Amino acid sequence: MYHFEDLLNHLLAVVFIDEADGKERWQVQTGVVVAAEEGCAFLIPPSTHPAFRLLPEWAERLKPIPQKLRQTLGNSEADFAIYVHVVALPKDADLGDYSPTGINLNA
């Protein structure tokens, strides 16, 4: 199993998968894994978005990117990717239960 600490200062592709309205949309953000106060964080250069925390339990989702997939991921130079499913928050959601990314997939 890989750990985010192994990827410090390396490129990581985060693949956001949105399954709203029964349609699957993918958005790929490539950024750098940086040290943070509590573990590691993901920073998208240029830093137009604040870095967001990479939760340790997400590390089990880290996958090496095969060469043949790099073009699909926008010719990413990242060696690893993590896949994150995005869901709409319920109206009564406790935001403390979620990890904000600052990324708007609808933008």
What does this 3D model show about the protein?
The protein is mostly beta strands and 107 residues long. The chain has one domain (4-87). It has strands at residues 11-18, 25-36, 39-43, 52-54, 63-64, 80-86. A six-stranded mixed beta sheet has the order 4-3-2-1-6-5, with no helix packed on it. A hairpin with an 8-residue loop joins β3 (39-43) and β4. It is globular and about 40 Å long. The mean pLDDT is 80.
Distinctive features:
globular, 6-stranded mixed β-sheet, 6 strands, mainly beta, 0% helix, 107 residues
Brief rundown of the structure:
With 107 residues, this protein is an all-beta fold.
Topology:
Layout lengths: L10 E8 L6 E12 L2 E5 L8 E3 L8 E2 L15 E7 L21
**Class inferred from helices and paired strands:** mainly beta
Strand percent estimate? 25-35%
Main sheet makeup: 6 strands, mixed
User: Can you give the mean pLDDT?
Assistant: 80
Unreliable stretches: none
Number of domains: 1
The helix count comes to 0
Strand order, sheet with most strands: 4-3-2-1-6-5
Approximate shape: globular
The first-to-last residue Cα distance is: 34 Å
